[in-house]
Every structure is written in C-alpha cells, then in structure tokens.
Amino acid sequence: MLLLIRLLVGYFLQSFPFGLLCIYAFRDHYRFRSRQTYLILSGGTLLLSTIFSTLCILLYKYSIIPQKDLFFAANLLFMATMIPCLLMYIYLTRGIFSKKLFVFLFALTAAFVINSFNNIICSHLSRHMTADGLPYDNVSIPMILLCTLLFIPPLLFLLHHKFIPLYDFLDPKEYRQLCLLALVLFLILIFEFFPMSDGRIYTRTILYLYIALILCTFMIYFIFFQIFAREKKRFEAQKQLEETTRQLELQ
When comparing pLDDT for 29 and 127, which is higher? Predict the structure, then answer.
C-alpha cells in the first residue's frame, strides 16, 4: 500500500503541473468552464497515476523484468502516459492544432528541465534508484515539488506576458515555425542531458554549461515572442493609420 501511495503521489506531482502549464495558455478557450476543466484534468491525471502505479507494482511484485531494469521500464511507462495526456489536453482546449502542439512542446521542455534537475540533485543526495528499483523515493518526491515551485512561476510569467497577448495574432504558419523551434530546443536539451546522467563523467562545469543552455533555451523563446509582439504592434499601428486615413477621406 505504501509503495502504491509513493508511486501515485510521485507521478501526480510530476505530471499535474505539466498539465496546468499546457492548458494555462488556453484559459479563455476551454471546451468547458474553468472549474470543470480543472476537475477533468485532475481526475485524468489521478487515473493515469493509478494506472502507472499499478503497472509498476505488477512489474515489481511478479518479477516480470529484472530489478536492475525496473527504473528504465518505469520511465518508459511514464513516457507512454504522455500520449493520453496529449489527447486529454487537445480535448479540453479550443484552437488550431499547431497552436496546441507548440504549447504542448513548450510545456514538455519545461517538464524535462524540471525532471533533469531533480535527477541530478537526487543522484548526489542519494542513489539514483531506490533499493526496489522503482522511482520516487523519499528524496526525489520533495525535490520534484521544490523544482516545480522553482521553475513553474517564471514559465507561467513568460506565457502570461509574452505568449497569451499573441494568441490570436499568430497564424498557422507562424505556429508551425514555433513548433519546429520548440522541437529542436527539446531535442538539444535531451542530447545534452545524457552525459550528465552518467555519474562517471559528471562535472560541475558540465552542470554550469547545462544551466546556461537551459537559460539560453528560454531566452530564445523570449526573443521570438518579442519579435512577434513588435510585429503585432506594427500591424496594429498600420491598421490604425489606414482607419484614420479612411475617416479623413470620408470627411
């Protein structure tokens, strides 16, 4: 029972903030009322948490795979649950698919950054894997919560002040460009994280470089949002000028 609670709480803490970050950009474009949307998101995440925890316990109790491979299998199960998360997110929000895909990739990048920092810290505070081979031990769960509280507020700030004002201005082509950018940045972070996940070649310098890479990643998002914001202001000014000219011609 304690193992089930541990896995359920760990999964929920890791995935629910990711879901909130996804739907926050569509807060005025929910399919249902806000309260219903958050209840569906919470219930869906709790259901996925239960499924994930149950499957992990079955793998552990019945020794379906070797114990040394349990941690890797749990991570594969976690990634598999991202598919129903994506489907739930698409269903709960309204908008073109490229817009939804960009926000999902942005949130996925943020979730990977949070998880990366959690893994790095936990690997130095305790063993990377628990004695039973399953994730979410008594060190990683508080660290997930701490990393989430550290990273989520600035990301919400970035979405609120830079992306949401552009929500209806960008066209599908520009959203496709942002999707490509988000995918490239996500892949770069993944490939750069692999050396850090190996304790044999981990160094403080690599950690600092990885932090700098993360800051550059979200700075690139900030720059792109700024470019589109200026384009929006220019477009609105041009439209206002045309409207003023038309009024003068009518007079």
Answer: 29
Contacting residues for 248 by C-beta, under 8 A, at least 6 apart: none
Q: What is the pLDDT confidence band of residue 43, given thresholds at 50, 70 and 90?
A: very high
- Asked if 197 contacts 119 with a C-beta cutoff of 8 angstroms, the reply is yes
Query: Mind giving me the DSSP string for the chain?
Result: -HHHHHHHHHHHHHHHHHHHHHHHTTTTSBSS-HHHHHHHHHHHHHHHHHHHHHHHHHHHHTT-S-GGGHHHHHHHHHHHTHHHHHHHHHHHB-S-HHHHHHHHHHHHHHHHHHHHHHHHHHHHHS-SS-TTS-S--TTHHHHHHHHHHHHHHHHHHHIIIIIGGGTTTS-HHHHHHHHHHHHHHHHHHHHHHHHHT-TTS--HHHHHHHHHHHHHHHHHHHHHHHHHHHHHHHHHHHHHHHHHHHHHHH-
Per residue in 116-164, pLDDT (tens digit) is 777 777 766 655 455 677 788 777 888 888 888 888 888 888 888 888 8
For tokens 């209806």, what's the residue?
A: 168
Tallying the residues shown for the chain, one arrives at: 251
pTM, to two decimals: 0.80
Token pair of 174 as six digits? 């520009």
134-163 exposure pattern, b = at least 16 Cβ within 10 A, e = fewer: bbbbebbbebbbebbeebbeebbebbeebb
Say what the pLDDT of residue 177 is. 86
